[in-house]
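User: structure tokens for this one?
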Amino acid sequence: MTPPAQGLLVKLGGTLLDAADSRDRLARQIAVARSDGHQITVVHGGGKQRTRFLAERGVQSTFVGGLRVTTPETLDAVLKVFAGSVNHELVAAINRAGALAVGISGIDSFLVEAEQMDPALGAVGRVTKSNPALLHLLTANGYVPVVACVATDRQGQVYNVNADQMAVACAAAFRVRQLIFLTDVAGVLDAAKQVRPLLTAAESRQLIADGIATGGMQAKLNAALAALAAGVEQVCIAPGAADRVLDRILAGEPLGTRIVSADGGPND
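Assistant:
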């Protein structure tokens, strides 16, 4: 039995959007979810595309603490790539699949506000607030908002924001029931390198404390924990390249890793 329609946010990693066939496959699933009555918002990354854009122009990247320093040149690339080509290619694919997508960013209508994270990082932003009115307006009228991960402050300074953090901010403000991270990994691995189909918040924190979840997966789990703390009922980290991945998750299939606040989950 198909579960009832619900608000959800899907975050797509930029790697999944680099090839037209992968982008079109995901766009078709997003369109199906919308036609099934789900009020769906999409947030996307684009780090691979940005790196290629900068390399083609001979711009060297500098990293501090694992984060790319966002110089004026880098910020220009963020706007042209994230809010430009990546965003609009995905919007076009979703429209072609039969839904009505609208490309926006955190800048639009102060959807997401940010502040400078660290002067050493340049225009890298930390989310301070999200204003969901635009998402409500669009989804209530049948549109699929497609959000690029740039934000601004009230003085108009533009910031490059981590896409996972952008997804959490939008999911929390929009009060979605489920946040789905579609990534290039099978899910969260335990010490035996096996995918855990279900994790509680406490177990997620333990994987980080034990040094099992590191790097990108540690960042994903921290994002998931922040979403749960903000009232999102469950977070799913799943392989975006899997066949019919979004359809299967929304049908309740245990694909990837589902993360909930406590044992049993919100609907068990």
